[in-house]
Amino acid sequence: MNSKEVLQLMKDRRSIRKFKPDPIEDEKIEQILEAARWCQSASNRQPWRFIVIKNKDTISRLKSAAKFGGFVADAPVVIAIIADKKQSPNWYLHDTSMVAHQMCLMAWAMEIGTCWIGSMDRAKAAAILELKETEHVTTILPFGYFYSKPSSTLRNELKTMVTTIE
Ligand SMILES: Cc1cc2nc3c(=O)[nH]c(=O)nc-3n(C[C@H](O)[C@H](O)[C@H](O)COP(=O)(O)O)c2cc1C
């Protein structure tokens, strides 16, 4: 893939909130997890683990924790990105946010959709997932094939965000 194709992948990616019920092949889930594994992290601490949820009942319980993510219930697979606060107290949120985006891009490259779930009752999600005290749910990502690509979301122009110091 050349740099233009990488940029195009990044531009094409959209948040998907409507999923087909079709299951996702295990090899593709593995590839998404592999993309996560190779993410960079502060001091290479890799303060994360992933819970792959295929169980319908657990997915439906997680839906009740996602404030703006009722669509989670329709995804055939949800991956919870769990940060270990103790392992990297200053950077666990940065590290696991990068992991999430890495997963989003890899999924998109395989025509699988996902969407960040930011607004969440994290205590409830932690209880459902039986997390340890030191763990934090950064996000849960629902994955599924999608019916159609949503129309482009807008982005601000570069000139509104870039300053160059020569
Ligand atoms: C940190 C973060 C939290 C988000 N939380 C939610 C959410 O709770 N529910 C939702 O439907 N979308 C959520 N999104 C998706 C954004 O709404 C979406 O990325 C944005 O509107 C741009 O659209 P695009 O991803 O299709 O380019 C979140 C995205 C990020 C990065």
Question: What is this entry, summarized?
Answer:
The protein has helices spanning 3-12, 26-37, 56-63, 92-109, 122-129; strands at 48-53, 77-84, 112-114, 135-145.
Describe the structure.
The protein has a single domain (3-160), classed as NADH Oxidase. It is 34% helix and 17% strand. The chain contains 5 helices and 4 strands; from the N terminus they run H-H-E-H-E-H-E-H-E. It has helices at residues 3-12, 26-37, 56-63, 92-109, 122-129; strands spanning 48-53, 77-84, 112-114, 135-145. Strands 1-2-4-3 form a 4-stranded antiparallel β-sheet. Helix 2 packs antiparallel against helix 4 (92-109). Bound molecules: flavin mononucleotide. Residues 14-15, 17, 68-69, 115-119, 153 line the site of flavin mononucleotide (FMN). Flavin mononucleotide binds next to loops.
Say which molecules are bound, naming each kind only once: flavin mononucleotide
Question: Which H/E pattern describes the elements?
Answer: HHEHEHEHE
Main beta-sheet annotation:
4 strands, antiparallel
Q: Gap between N and C termini, in Å?
A: 32 Å
Tell me the layout of helices and strands.
Blueprint: H1 3-12, H2 26-37, E1 48-53, H3 56-63, E2 77-84, H4 92-109, E3 112-114, H5 122-129, E4 135-145
Helix pairs in contact: 2-4
The structure holds flavin mononucleotide.
Features:
166 residues, alpha+beta, NADH Oxidase, four-stranded antiparallel sheet, 5 helices, binds flavin mononucleotide
